[in-house]
């Protein structure tokens, strides 16, 4: 089916949009513009949708909300929001009757003429996606050809822009396991940064979670898989992968350890540089000292982006990004220094491995760490180990606090009183307590190791709340200084 035929394919089709939110808002707009008959479904009650419900109904969209929102699910095409499990009985029954189950990201992949680069993994997706987009943008400016669109699981959906894209353009997508769960198309170049236990409150088990990630490369469109030689799961996936492969390693200095078969490439470090080996010879790509972001995990993010853009960008474009990029918001973001205490917002750290990476990046500094939030059924033993090695004190907050505490109490530093652990169920109280525990020359780190949904709409709102409170602390200190001066 050609692209033009696909645009017309939806005219008169009965389509169900399941789960109303950012990605499916884009789907509704697309379907409406192309003449589909739309049923919009959401588990929330209509009143909570507010003006959005009024707007949809004014367009003639059939709105079904609350209990029974999936009753009568008999439309021809079903668009699933990322957070809606495809194994809901009503959805499975509809698919068994012949309905097509798809999503906003799958429709975008079908329609876009742009070259698509996708990034998934448990940690590092957002920074790697941002770096990849910036490197391509720098090259497009340098050559005067093509444009770069960045989206997927970050930013805004790209579906509304798909009709303006051309074959000279690039679409760089951050892809979650939720988005990839039912995907039947792959990206042209895809990366799996790493795989560790995550989202096990949604996925049935670790095998299903890993299998979803693999959809980024397992279908026919993929021409390159980039993945991590130092992660056990991704190393095993690489070993079984028959197609073109680039392994990266922040430890290996010998590229022959990473080149598995003819046609493979490798990205590695040696003597303070990141190198790319194309199977025939090596090229120094980036001096590590030029990277402004701290931590080995950020070095790996750069390695992934360099691997994904090989042959597409120059070393000058890569080095331009390294010199200028200071990091994404909510990832080890330095908010302020108040009374000699440095405050870091790393609200995006929604898994234990992310918190461990943040603590490692700040070492040897030992911050007061605010942890806790919405539980994703991940094991907390790795988090406890990282906190015991790198934290001065821990403030537990949110729904997962009672689950994290036993893992901490099993560690010797906590049992022996060397690492104090405090409880503050309310987030604002946790931030204030962390401030009171930190002394001049020390740091406060918000790195929750959990999702935010117990108290916030998303990690951005959580991080913004932290930053606002820190700014209030700064204002209070300025006022106190002014009063003392008077």
Q: What is the residue-mean pLDDT, rounded to a whole number?
A: 94
Helical proportion, percent range:
25-40%
Number of domains: 3
Task: Note the main sheet.
Answer: 9 strands, mixed
Spatially, the strands of the biggest sheet line up as 7-8-6-9-10-11-12-13-14
The CATH superfamily of the largest domain is identified as: Mur-like, catalytic domain
Q: What is the top-level CATH class of the largest domain?
A: Alpha Beta
Low-pLDDT stretches are none
Number of strands: 20
Q: Radius of gyration from the CA trace?
A: 24 Å
> N-to-C terminal Cα separation, in Å?
76 Å
Looking at CATH, which topology of the largest domain would you report? UDP-N-acetylmuramoyl-L-alanine:D-glutamate ligase
Total helical elements: 18
* Category from helices, strands and their pairing: alpha/beta
Strand content: 15-25%
Shape: globular
Shape-level CATH architecture of the largest domain: 3-Layer(aba) Sandwich
Q: Can you describe what's shown?
A:
The chain is an alpha/beta fold. The chain folds into three domains: 91 residues, Rossmann fold (3-Layer(aba) Sandwich), CATH 3.40.50.720; 219 residues, UDP-N-acetylmuramoyl-L-alanine:D-glutamate ligase (3-Layer(aba) Sandwich), CATH 3.40.1190.10; 147 residues, Alpha-Beta Complex (Protein-Tyrosine Phosphatase, Chain A), CATH 3.90.190.20. Helices cover 38% and strands 19% of the residues. The strands form three sheets. It has a nine-stranded mixed sheet with strand order 7-8-6-9-10-11-12-13-14, with helices on both faces. A hairpin with a 4-residue loop joins strand 13 and strand 14. The model has no long low-confidence stretch (mean pLDDT 94).
